[in-house]
Amino acid sequence: MTDLSDLPPVRSGRGVPAWPGVPLLVALALWAYAMRHTDVSRLDDYGLVSALHPAFWAGLAVLTTGFWFTVRDPRRPAAWSAAYVLGLLVMERATQAVLYPTPLYAWGWKHEAVIDHLLTAGGLQTADQVGDMAVYDQWPGFFAAQAALQRLLGVDSVAMYMAWWPLVSSLMLLLPLLLIYRTFTEDRRLIWTAVWLFYVANWVGQDYFSPQSVAYALHVGVLAVVLRRFGRSAVRRGRPRQAVWTVVLTVLIVTIVISHQLTPGMLVVCLLALCLSRRYRDWVPVVTTVVIFLAWCLTAALPFLSAAMPDMIRSIGDVGANVETGYGATPTGTGAIATSWAARLLSGSVLLLAAVGVLRQRVLRHRAWPLLLVAAAPLPMFAASSYGSEMIFRVLLFMLPGAAFFAAAALLPKVRTLAADAAAQQAGNRQAGNRQAGNRQSGGSSKARRWGIGTWVPLAALLGGTLAFVPAYSGKDRINYFPPQEVALVRQLFDQAPDGSLVVAANRNYPDAYASYWSVDHYWFLDDARSHVDKIVRHPAATLADDMAGVERPGRAYFLLTQGQLANSEMNGQLDKAQLDRIRKSVAASPRFRLVAENSAGWLYVLKRSGGAER
Known about the structure:
Layout: H1 21-36, H2 48-51, H3 54-71, H4 78-93, H5 95-99, H6 106-121, H7 127-130, H8 134-138, H9 141-153, H10 165-184, H11 188-201, H12 211-229, H13 232-237, H14 239-257, H15 263-274, H16 284-297, H17 302-315, H18 334-360, H19 362-367, H20 369-376, H21 381-384, H22 391-411, H23 418-430, H24 432-442, H25 445-450, H26 453-474, H27 477-480, H28 484-496, E1 502-505, E2 521-524, H29 530-538, H30 540-548, E3 557-562, H31 563-571, H32 577-589, E4 593-599, E5 602-607
Parallel strand pairs: 1-2, 1-3
Antiparallel strand pairs: 3-5, 4-5
């Protein structure tokens, strides 16, 4: 790498005026003002986008502009760029935690139930004991760690802090990202712009309270260790140290393997891709990962894999399942469609910028070739499995570290070799007199060029991506947010439901949907065959009563319909509001059901017992 030069180095920050802090403080002040004047009690189909006070958008624009003019100025120390990135994380990852009084995402609430079960049961259980939920007991790393943390903190539930998990998990990624990017350049403009673009393009939503969030951070950490400590130059400099880094690598890989099903596979393909580069043709990382992964799959995870393997084999090559449309898989309504397109355009723009950076930065393309391999490695996973129609999002997520680096390179000046610099300097010496004369005649023309298209076009691209993150990330908050009234209604249900009860709901999009899953059964009728859903729509009360009639004493059969279920059904193309209202009114009018509780967020009914008095 001695034949390459980075962009101009950063000079000492001493004596540099503190003006870079002004836009940052203004942006955070606007954000704080917006938080105090944003009402989330009535979200529409645009989610948080239409609810946010205009001061939020102004603050985000000021933050992005301040970051760009700070990061591109070589006089500014890297600490200013870091401060702006932290400001970005606060504005984009902490906003929901500040505004919403309850945690987001039904899946986050599901993971809380798994932790509660682990603490209640005192150990792992099998499918014979907890059915399909045993899959979480076969990858218990995240849940066991959270159960220990809950006990250590002395809180009643992880719900006390899981709303802040997106900010925490995003901060976990910062150090490994910096280590990866510093492996290929020392120019802090490229490094921090790449970090900014990574966070802006990471709208997929896997930063919530989930095993994926931790496994992904560890995945990026493994790549950082491999890229910095397992290249040829690193091995030559200190072979005895490789044993230490192999131990570190093994600990990280074991934690990933016992926590999440997909991430180890992504890690394997990324490490295999690195082996295509002569700089990283070290088989220790990839062999270590494969051995640990297979050992876990053939022991603890074997029960789940044995049952799921036929479906997994059939899905190989079914690329179309990644873009499945139809009943329950098509965004419906102007808001849902707009936010879906915002996400697509954001990802497409970053990938397009990455392609431009690869083509434009010839020197950087050579220097960061391993990072380009890592970015391309997840693509074959499209053909491996649809992963419940989510593989396309996971592939985008795992491509991001490399894609963001080259996208940042597209926004910055070209990197040149030392030979090219020497030639340019020699040619410049011959033309020095002409340039000086031209400068005297043109006055501030060089300054005008410095602040010309090379400044404003990249700023516009950066600003557009940063603003687009908001609808892509939080445009579906009408689905993901559960108001306190909905939480209270669901908890009232599980507080009174005896063991052996059945809870029937339209779908699983409500808080605590998996509460007491080890003692209470659940049935979400929109997951059933379309023919049966149509039967429920035609004869709601009679069909649901028949479906719920098999519950044995002392269990009870409950019908729950909440705001979150309505939003999910409408915006994902299942049943519309009129159809769900018809179902609810039919149940309310039926003599076979009794209203137990209701509030502004939903209704709870119980099926009356046959052949006896109803209390």
